[in-house]
Design goal:
Blueprint (H helix, E strand, L loop, with lengths): L7 H15 L1 E7 L2 E11 L13 E6 L16 E4 L5 E2 L5 E5 L2 E10 L1
Antiparallel strand pairs: 1-2, 1-4, 2-3, 3-7, 4-5, 6-7
Length: 112
């Protein structure tokens, strides 16, 4: 049973469950470390274009649970492979979401 509490652990558990059921596998690389992780990959919405987001940008949602070998987060400059597409670089400054000081979700963007 999933932890439904309104705590960092509950928030992470719900995201992990959603990613396991509906996410996709992407490959992250930082230096010599490479790992397949689960993530949501979505194209940017038209209403976000021009707000610092270019056409062709994809938003990627990660859980810290799946990023253990990367210290629980991704960084700008990490490489990602989505499906059969060539590797591309994660844009600078992913949005790190915290609850009570605990990382519960990471939103990153890639362009290209």
């Amino acid at each position: 049973m999933i932890d439904l509490s309104d705590t960092p652990a509950g928030t992470i558990a719900r995201l992990d469950d959603a990613l396991s059921r509906r996410g996709e596998t992407v490959r992250i690389r930082r230096g010599s470390i490479e790992e397949n992780v689960r993530a949501f990959v979505r194209k940017s919405k038209p209403e976000t274009l021009g707000a610092g987001i270019a056409q062709g940008t994809r938003v990627i949602v990660f859980s810290p649970s799946f990023l253990g070998n990367f210290g629980g987060t991704v960084k700008g400059g990490d490489w990602i492979r989505i499906g059969d597409y060539p590797e591309i670089v994660i844009d600078e400054r992913p949005e790190v979401i915290r609850m009570n000081g605990v990382i519960v979700r990471i939103n990153a963007t890639v362009t290209g």
